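Hi Y.,

Following your request, here is the sequence exactly as I used it, all 69 residues.
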Amino acid sequence: MSLKARWDNTVEYFRSVYSELKKVHWPSRTQLIGYTGVVLLAVAVVGVIIWLFDWGLSYLMQLIFDAFS
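Below is the corresponding structure, written out as tokens. Let me know if you'd prefer a different format.
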């Protein structure tokens, strides 16, 4: 592939990217803040669930190790 063909392909790619970005429905500031809050809440909930699961397994393993030592 020649250098000119590569350049033309690159230019066409970025033109199509720009064209697709114009079609995107961007959220308003209020929507963005709301979506961010939902994501942060979901991350916190999942984090707490993982922490509780980890803590419970650690506690269970400690009981097992103490029983056999």
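The chain is about 85% helix and 0% strand.

Thanks again,
Q.
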